[in-house]
Amino acid sequence: MLGRRKQPEAPVQQAPAGPGKNKPTPKRSAAVAARKQPLVAAKPTGPRGKLTKDQKDAQRVDRANARARMMAGDEAYLPARDKGPVRRYVRDVVDARRSIGEYLLPLMLVFLVLSYAGQSQATRGSAVFTAIFGLIYLVVVASAVDAFLLARRLKKEVNARFGDGTWSGLTTYAVMRTFQIRRTRVPKPGVDRGQPPRR
Q1: How far apart, in whole angstroms, are the C-alpha atoms of residue 67 and residue 83?
Q2: For 149-159, how does the pLDDT look when each residue is reduced to its tens digit (9 = 90+)?
């Protein structure tokens, strides 16, 4: 009996492994566990964690030196918001005058103490409160008017000295420095009271 010759079977090609759908879908619990991350990052184990005591001391000295140079107004160490001759001129004009705004915070603390003192005296409490709040509003309004007049004068001076358009964005910078206590300003004042701006 004649039979057919069997054809050789073609080899089965395996699908290439890759990022596609070539593996079973993981269970939901396994996928959630793979995405979990600790709330607190692990401590770095790189070169910073292996610094010697001398290296740490040297870094501390460098940071202190950089801060001292920044407080002194060194342009190389100033942050971007304080760099440039225009901003230095604005700082010098603000620091050379006495502003009502720089006394606002100490006066508010004094008024707070006085309000508690008036509260303990029930007979004169209402009169004392009225006087204290009247003084507070007066100081706040006077500080705002003083800062507004300073900003308007500074805008004219800056545009005349450095060219039109250089005042853009400096109103907030000047006003915020006006309301800071002089000894807490960063960088520190580079001029004394009544001294003209540096060139």
Answers
A1: 15
A2: 999 999 999 99
Q: Are 90 and 174 in contact (CB under 8 A)?
A: yes
pLDDT tens-digit series, residues 80-125: 999 999 999 999 999 999 999 999 999 989 888 877 776 655 545 5
CA distance 174 to 86: 11
DSSP letter at 15 equals P
Q: Which of 104, 70, 86, 91 is nearest to 177 (CA)?
A: 91
CA–CA dist 76, 66 (Å, integer):
9
Residue with tokens 């290296």: 55
C-alpha closest to that of 169 among 90, 71, 58: 90
Return all residues near 190 (Cβ < 8 A) that are at least 6 apart: 73, 88, 91, 92, 95, 198
Single-letter amino acid, residue 38:
P
Which residues have CB under 8 Å from 22's CB, separation 6+? Answer: 15, 16
| pTM, rounded to two decimals | 0.68
Helix, strand and coil in the chain, % to nearest 5? 60, 0, 40
Name the DSSP letter for residue 14: P
The token pair that represents 198 in the structure block: 């540096």
| CA pair distance 62, 73, nearest whole angstrom | 17
Q: At a CB cut-off of 8 Å and minimum separation 6, what does 140 contact?
A: 104
